[in-house]
């Protein structure tokens, strides 16, 4: 294993933790052919398996009629093991928002959220079980980190969402995903290698992957600067979203503890590097918390930091979490924050919050069976 880059966070699996079983979605097309050959089958069977998984969403060997019956169970065991199962779906917004609780192979729980809007469908997916960033206003962060998800565990959330849309499980008729946001449980860039693998599986042309557009994928980060710079060199055209939440280091040290390691200006400089190399504007995520970070002077400071940059600000009214002492900003303070940012020429919108009733909105995912 290569040593981490200077300053990069590392993840150590808990003692006794079992690795997720190898899955087709963990492997590149070439690696799949090698795995199929090692199982004693002709390498072209790898493409057939990819077709069933990524294009037809057929996970049962009984449906693989183009593969000899004698080979199906063996190939399923080798390359398409059951990674995760649905514990429950919970819906709101007239069933247009659906949160799924997943149980992984080792009993770990994670959540994903599918949101259907007029003309588009967005899915918010998890990259870790829990989160180690410890942001005090986020339910996931308060739960701590359990483990990283494998590439296949990340990808399978989307594959199942696409199957559900195709099969009409979400009201509105058959559809396809428009946007994928790595904004569920976890810090995506702290699980760097597997998240990059997932992006490649999502965007590889069918049948090697799902054939989705990189421009429809957003990857969020609290500001892991070395990983952001590494991400800028991947050649992707995904959107980078920076969870900033405060323009000054004094407050951000408290709201986003990783800021004690990489300060606001370092984080923003890395974001501008990504914008320059990808050609995409950066999204600045900012949860508005009453009397904490919603003052007009902080809006003015944020506007001065972002003025003239390739950027868009997403203001997020704070979503309630159990036991939290904080709440969303007053409407008049939110309006003044928007006006102040706009006065600097910074594009800004207030996010349409979805899923509060089912604890499925930003910062609410906790993956419990209560």
Automatic annotation (TrEMBL):
Cofactor detail note: Binds 1 [4Fe-4S] cluster. The cluster is coordinated with 3 cysteines and an exchangeable S-adenosyl-L-methionine.
Cofactor dependency: [4Fe-4S] cluster
SMART domains for this protein: Elp3
Positions annotated to bind [4Fe-4S] cluster: 131, 135, 138
Cell compartment(s), UniProt: Cytoplasm
Keywords: 4Fe-4S, Cytoplasm, Disulfide bond, Iron, Iron-sulfur, Metal-binding, Methyltransferase, rRNA processing, S-adenosyl-L-methionine, Transferase, tRNA processing
Binding-site positions, S-adenosyl-L-methionine: 186-187, 220, 243-245, 319
Source domain of life: Bacteria
Domain Radical SAM core per the UniProt entry, residue ranges: 117-357
Catalytic activity from the UniProt record: adenosine(37) in tRNA + 2 reduced [2Fe-2S]-[ferredoxin] + 2 S-adenosyl-L-methionine = 2-methyladenosine(37) in tRNA + 5'-deoxyadenosine + L-methionine + 2 oxidized [2Fe-2S]-[ferredoxin] + S-adenosyl-L-homocysteine; adenosine(2503) in 23S rRNA + 2 reduced [2Fe-2S]-[ferredoxin] + 2 S-adenosyl-L-methionine = 2-methyladenosine(2503) in 23S rRNA + 5'-deoxyadenosine + L-methionine + 2 oxidized [2Fe-2S]-[ferredoxin] + S-adenosyl-L-homocysteine
EC number(s) stated in the UniProt entry for this protein: 2.1.1.192
Compositional bias (Basic and acidic residues): 23-35
Region annotated Disordered, chain positions: 1-39
Active site: 111, 362
Protein function: Specifically methylates position 2 of adenine 2503 in 23S rRNA and position 2 of adenine 37 in tRNAs.
Protein family (similarity comment): Belongs to the radical SAM superfamily. RlmN family.
More about this protein: Reaction proceeds by a ping-pong mechanism involving intermediate methylation of a conserved cysteine residue.
Name of protein: Probable dual-specificity RNA methyltransferase RlmN
Gene: rlmN
């Amino acid at each position: 294993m290569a040593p981490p880059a200077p300053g990069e966070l590392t993840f150590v699996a808990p003692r006794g933790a079992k690795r997720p079983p190898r899955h087709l979605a963990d492997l590149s097309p070439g690696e799949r052919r090698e795995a199929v050959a090692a199982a004693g089958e002709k390498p072209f069977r790898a493409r057939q398996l990819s077709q069933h998984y990524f294009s037809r969403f057929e996970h049962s060997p009984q449906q693989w009629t183009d593969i000899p019956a004698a080979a199906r169970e063996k190939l399923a065991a080798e390359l398409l093991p059951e990674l995760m199962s649905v514990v429950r779906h919970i819906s709101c917004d007239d069933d247009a928002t659906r949160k799924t609780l997943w149980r992984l192979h080792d009993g770990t729980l994670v959540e994903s959220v599918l949101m259907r809007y007029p003309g588009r469908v967005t899915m918010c997916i998890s990259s870790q079980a829990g989160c180690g960033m410890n942001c005090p206003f986020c339910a996931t962060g308060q739960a701590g980190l359990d483990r990283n998800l494998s590439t296949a565990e990340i990808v399978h959330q989307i594959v199942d969402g696409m199957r559900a849309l195709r099969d009409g499980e979400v009201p509105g008729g058959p559809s396809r995903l428009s946007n994928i946001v790595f904004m569920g449980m976890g810090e995506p860039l702290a699980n760097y290698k597997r998240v990059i693998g997932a992006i490649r599986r999502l965007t590889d042309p069918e049948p090697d992957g799902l054939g989705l557009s990189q421009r429809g994928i957003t990857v969020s980060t609290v500001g892991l600067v070395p990983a952001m710079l590494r991400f800028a060199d991947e050649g992707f055209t995904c959107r980078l979203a920076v969870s900033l939440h405060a323009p000054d280091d004094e407050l951000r040290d408290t709201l986003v503890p990783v800021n004690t390691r990489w300060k606001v200006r370092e984080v923003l400089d890395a974001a501008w590097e990504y914008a320059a190399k990808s050609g995409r504007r950066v999204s600045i995520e900012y949860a508005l918390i009453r009397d904490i970070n919603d003052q007009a002077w902080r809006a003015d400071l944020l506007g001065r930091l972002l003025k003239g940059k390739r950027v868009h600000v997403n203001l997020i009214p704070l979503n309630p979490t159990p036991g939290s002492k904080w709440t969303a900003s007053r409407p008049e303070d939110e309006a003044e924050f928007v006006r102040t940012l706009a006065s600097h020429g910074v594009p800004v919108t207030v996010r349409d919050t979805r899923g509060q009733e089912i604890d499925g909105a930003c910062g609410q995912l906790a993956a419990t069976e209560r």
